[in-house]
Amino acid sequence: MKRILITGALGQIGSELTLRLREVYGSDNVIATDIRKNDSEAAQSGPFEVVDVTNLQSMMETAKKYNVDTVMHLAALLSATAEAKPVFAWNLNMGGLMNALETARELKAQFFTPSSIGAFGPSTPKDNTPQDTIMRPTTMYGVNKVAGELLSDYYFHKFGVDTRGVRFPGLISYDTPPGGGTTDYAVEIYYEAVKNGKYTSYIDKGTYMDMMYMPDALNAIINLMEADSAKLIHRNAFNVTAMSFAPEEIAAEIKKNIPDFHIEYNVDLDRQKIAESWPNSIDASAAAAEWGFKAEYNLETMTKDMIEKLRQKL
Ligand code: SER
Questions:
Q1: Which candidate, 200, 193, 146, places its Cα nearest to that of 172?
Q2: Per-residue model confidence as pLDDT tens digits over 57-87
Q3: Residue range 83-111, pLDDT digits in tens
Q4: Helices (H), ranges, 86-137
Q5: CA distance 197 to 194
Q6: Mean pLDDT value of segment 198-216
Q7: Does residue 181's CB lie within 6 angstroms of at least one atom of ligand 1?
Q8: CB-ligand 1 contact for 116 (6 Å cutoff)
Q9: How confident is the model at residue 245 (pLDDT cuts 50, 70, 90)?
């Protein structure tokens, strides 16, 4: 990776990944793109271009203008929004991915796109979900993610594009909030805890999902992209995780730092149904074995850091 084009660079992952990559590879070598510009640091601290990922010509021209050797495709609708607008989600998620893969093929660039725990479904083994297992998701987002993994594999085998990906769990961060995801509650709960000392969860108690703190997610992307290609057996896409918890457990951890904090429940049946179709916890041993994946943060250390950072921010 020397000159990197990022789509969705102002989203939850992109806004932090852009800054991190600029530190590592130099500001001018990281070309941030998104459907619109804003005044965030990611948009202002280096090259930025407006690119609608459904427009192949615009993406291709931008990639050629900067002569990139890496494409990181992050622009996508998350699970709950995709469920509300399935046709739009198919067009954006699959059309965007196809255009990004075509751009990588044309420029002979290395390629990264995230898959998700959403690629699993109700017939997947729920605990310690293996790397290679049944994948029959019941959400549009999940269908997009499985198709995306297969398409990325296809571009590797058919065209020799160096495609790589991870199945991210819910990502927790204090910088740019996620939008329209099922795991978003685990971000909102920290904002509400710091602002108001209470949170009403739309995910029910006892519902376990995998999660990861953003610094670990950024390290995972960089380490995977820097890994020796010959050692990668799975490529698209590796299970990665840092922790698994239910709402009452994150609430209990927050309470250790904010003693008056309390959680209530008002379950959103749509998002609850999505959550229940996903694993309780996934097995990341293939990522550990093939490229040394390891997460640093657990629920306790992440909670301390989130609360500290949000107290400064809010
Ligand atoms: N965080 C995503 C979502 O909830 C899962 O990949 O949609």
A1: 193
A2: 999 999 999 999 999 999 999 999 999 999 9
A3: 999 999 999 999 999 999 999 999 999 99
A4: 86-89, 95-107
A5: 6
A6: 98
A7: yes
A8: yes
A9: very high
Residue from 120, 141, 203, 208 to probe ligand 1 pocket by mutation (most atoms less than 8 Å from CB): 141
Q: How far is the CA of 180 from the centre of ligand 1 (A)?
A: 8
The pLDDT value recorded for residue 1 is 73
What residue spans in the chain does CATH classification 3.40.50.720 cover? Answer: 4-169+214-222, 170-211+241-313
Both ends of the chain: CA-CA distance in Å?
A: 35
The CATH number corresponding to 4-169+214-222 among 3.40.50.2300, 3.40.50.720, 3.40.30.10, 3.30.1360.120 equals: 3.40.50.720
Q: Is 141 a catalytic residue?
A: yes
Q: Is the pLDDT of residue 265 over 80?
A: yes
Could you tell me the distance, in angstroms and rounded to a whole number, from the CA of residue 17 to the centre of ligand 1? Answer: 17
- Give the residue whose CA is nearest to atom 1 of ligand 1: 170
Query: What atom of ligand 1 comes closest to residue 184's alpha carbon?
Result: 4
CATH code given to domain 170-211+241-313: 3.40.50.720
Distance 119 CA to ligand 1 centre (A): 10
Asked whether 11 lines ligand 1 (CB < 6 A), one says no
Q: Which among 19, 109, 24, 9 has a CA at the least distance from the CA of 67? A: 109
Residue 34 has pLDDT above 80, yes or no: yes
Which of 81, 140, 184 has the most ligand 1 atoms within 8 A of CB, as the residue to mutate? 184
Q: What are the structure tokens assigned to 275, written together? A: 């959550």
Rounded to whole angstroms, how far apart are CA atoms 59 and 168? 25
Q: Are 130 and 121 in contact (CB under 8 A)?
A: no
Given 141, 174, 202, 208, the catalytic residue: 141
**CA gap 295, 282 in Å, rounded:** 13
- Rounded to two decimals, what is the model's pTM? 0.97
For 127, counting Cβ atoms within 10 Å of its Cβ (0-12 exposed, 13-18 middle, 19+ buried), the class is exposed
